[in-house]
Amino acid sequence: MSQENVEVVRAALNAFAELDEGLVRLERVAEFFAQDVIVTFSGFAGFVEEGRTLRGADEFLEFRAAWMEPYDDFLYEPVKIIDAGGNGVVATLHQRGKPHGSDSWVEMDYGLVYTVEEGLITRSDFYATPEKALEAAGLSE
Description:
The protein is of the alpha+beta class.
């Protein structure tokens, strides 16, 4: 089941990228998430309050839209998607955005630990660094 879980995460990340490019509708992204998905944040001081928890796909999608709003250009790319055993999948990402009215890019690397159950993402735990996400999943590079 683990490789299937990796593919669910990969497909969800691809759907977000396609959404950002205007190639798919929001409903396509929602197909990969349980309606009662839990999303948490760890170590994003200054960006997101420590330990913040979002409940449900709609609340996460609203948060994501607000996160991207300050940017004229915004992109992210998965660096690695790793089977963490059981229902876990770790994804490390590189994100960059160009704030409104700026010629400079703001960049960051971060990681997520996903829980996938019955083909749907039921939990997404964001970590401020890829290393913290790997550590949380009991993995190391």
